[in-house]
Write a structure and sequence with these properties.
Blueprint: E1 12-17, H1 19-37, E2 40-45, H2 48-57, E3 62-65, H3 69-78, E4 88-102, H4 113-121, E5 138-141, H5 147-155, E6 167-168, H6 172-179, E7 185-190, E8 200-201, E9 207-216, H7 221-232
Parallel strand pairs: 1-2, 1-3, 5-6, 5-7
Antiparallel strand pairs: 3-9, 4-7, 4-8, 4-9
Helix pairs in contact: 1-7, 2-3, 3-5
Length: 234
C-alpha cells in the first residue's frame, strides 16, 4: 500500500452497504487501511439499498455499493428510500464481475443471457430444458435490497421483476453457499464468491460492475482518506 497522510485526529468512519464490497474490498484490507489512515472503521454489511438508506439518514458516512450508481439507487428504492442521484457521488475502487453458478454435479456448462433471464422469470423451470438432468431449477438471489440482485434485474432481466419462486438470501455470499449443497441450485454471485471447489461457474456473456463507495456530495476528509487508502491497497 502506498503511504497515506495521517489525519490530525482519528475518527470512526462508518461504512454500510454491499456485502460484496465488504468481503472483497474492505475486509481483506481493513487492518492496513486503519493503520495507514489512523481512523477506525465501523463496517455493516446490510446490502446496497439499506446502506444508501443509512447514508441518507446520517447513520453511515459512506455506502458500500456493488453496481453503477443508477442501479444502486434502484436498490435504495426497494429498501424504501427514493434518492436524488444528482446529490450522490460514486467513488469506484475496483472492477468486479457477476457470474452464475450451479452445483458441481450439474452437467450444464454454458447459458445465454436469454436463458438466464427466463430462468429468473420462471419461464424455464427444469434443467432438462437447458440440456441438463430432469430436475427442477431452484433459483437463489441476493437480498431483495441487494446490489447484485438489482444489477441482474436491470441488465439481464431487462428491468423485469424476479419470478415469485426465486429465493432471496440474506446476502450474495449465501447464494454461493446454498448452491454448493443444492444439486438443483442456480444463482448470480460476485466472482470472488464462486470458489471452484464448491460451485461451478457457467459460461455466459461477461457482466462487469464497479465496486466502491457512495457519499452525499463530496466526501468528508476522513472518508476521503479512507477511500484513497482502499484504492491504494493491493
Amino acid at each position: 500500500m502506498s503511504i497515506v497522510a495521517l489525519p490530525a485526529s482519528a475518527e470512526v468512519v462508518r461504512l454500510h452497504g454491499a456485502t460484496t464490497v465488504m468481503n472483497v474490498v474492505v475486509n481483506p484490507h481493513r487492518e492496513a487501511v486503519e493503520k495507514a489512515t489512523g481512523h477506525t472503521l465501523e463496517i455493516v454489511g446490510n446490502a446496497t439499498g439499506k446502506g444508501l438508506v443509512d447514508l441518507a439518514a446520517g447513520t453511515a458516512d459512506a455506502a458500500m455499493v456493488s453496481e453503477p450508481l443508477e442501479i444502486a439507487v434502484e436498490a435504495a428504492a426497494v429498501a424504501g428510500k427514493q434518492l436524488d442521484i444528482k446529490t450522490l457521488q460514486m467513488h469506484e475502487v475496483r472492477k468486479d464481475e457477476v457470474v452464475f453458478v450451479v452445483h458441481p454435479s450439474n452437467p450444464v456448462t454454458s447459458l445465454s443471457w436469454e436463458q438466464i433471464r427466463d430462468v429468473h422469470l420462471g419461464k424455464i423451470t427444469n434443467w432438462k430444458q437447458l440440456g441438463g438432468d430432469d430436475r427442477p431449477i431452484t433459483v437463489y438471489s441476493d437480498a431483495t435490497t441487494g446490489g447484485t440482485r438489482a444489477l441482474v434485474r436491470h441488465l439481464v432481466l431487462g428491468g423485469q421483476e424476479y419470478g415469485s419462486a426465486v429465493k432471496p438470501q440474506l446476502n450474495v455470499k449465501r447464494v454461493a453457499e446454498v448452491v454448493a449443497v443444492d444439486q438443483s441450485g442456480f444463482g448470480g454471485v460476485g466472482r470472488g464468491f464462486a470458489e471452484a471447489a464448491s460451485v461451478k461457474t457457467v459460461k455466459t456473456k461477461k457482466l462487469e460492475r464497479p465496486l466502491g463507495f457512495v457519499t452525499i456530495g463530496a466526501p468528508k476528509p476522513g472518508v476521503a482518506t479512507v477511500i484513497a487508502a482502499f484504492r491504494a491497497a493491493k
